[in-house]
Design a protein that fits this description.
By secondary structure, the protein is an alpha+beta fold. It is built from 2 helices and 11 strands.
């Protein structure tokens, strides 16, 4: 059976169109599923909060998101421009990797940004450290977010990471202990 030149050209043309379409679809799938810069946040318990009141002690856990400037700080830290991430801020905020600080940072009633105690440790062979601070409130304050910074100046745009928690109304003399757990898993 012989195929005419016209049918052969049409068959080649259709193969090219179908192949090109599949190539574009494949490229789109690979680009959007395997090479995107930020993956969706998968919450893991790496920010631990302990609330102490006269009614008892309550423990909360939440995930965090590393900010874009936090990622850059990690990268530059590998190039000898290290940032000492050890300051904890409290406030109210939505959480997004493009933010550089909390939307509203608390700076009164004992909720000021302050240096935490840094403890280095190893997590399954990976470098890790915790930053812990206990806040005692000097009045009523409502908070829903915390940030980990490398500067002690309130409202400075240098958040390494941000985390949100259930909006909580804290009363006078209540304590909030926050522990940020940072693990560098380069595997």
């Amino acid at each position: 059976m012989e195929i005419s030149k016209k049918k052969f050209v049409w068959a080649l043309f259709l193969c090219g169109v179908i192949g090109g379409a599949w190539g574009m679809v494949g490229s789109y799938v690979i680009q959007n599923n395997f090479s995107s810069r930020h993956q969706p946040m998968i919450p893991s318990a790496n920010v631990f909060l302990t609330i102490q009141t006269e009614m008892g002690t309550y423990d909360l856990m939440t995930g965090n998101i590393i900010t874009d400037i936090g990622e850059n700080a990690t990268r530059y830290g590998l190039e000898n421009v290290a940032r000492d991430v050890k300051y904890i801020a409290l406030g109210n905020s939505t959480i997004d990797q493009t933010k550089t600080k909390l939307d509203t940072e608390a700076s009164t009633l004992g909720a000021d940004r302050i240096e935490g105690t840094r403890t280095d440790w190893t997590s399954s062979g990976d470098y890790a450290f915790n930053v812990t601070k206990k806040f005692t409130f000097g009045g009523d304050i409502t908070l829903n977010a915390t940030a980990l910074h490398w500067s002690d100046v309130t409202d400075t745009e240098d958040a390494y990471a941000l985390a949100s928690f259930t909006k909580t109304a804290f009363a006078n003399n209540w304590n909030l202990t926050i522990t940020w757990s940072v693990i560098f898993n380069g595997n």
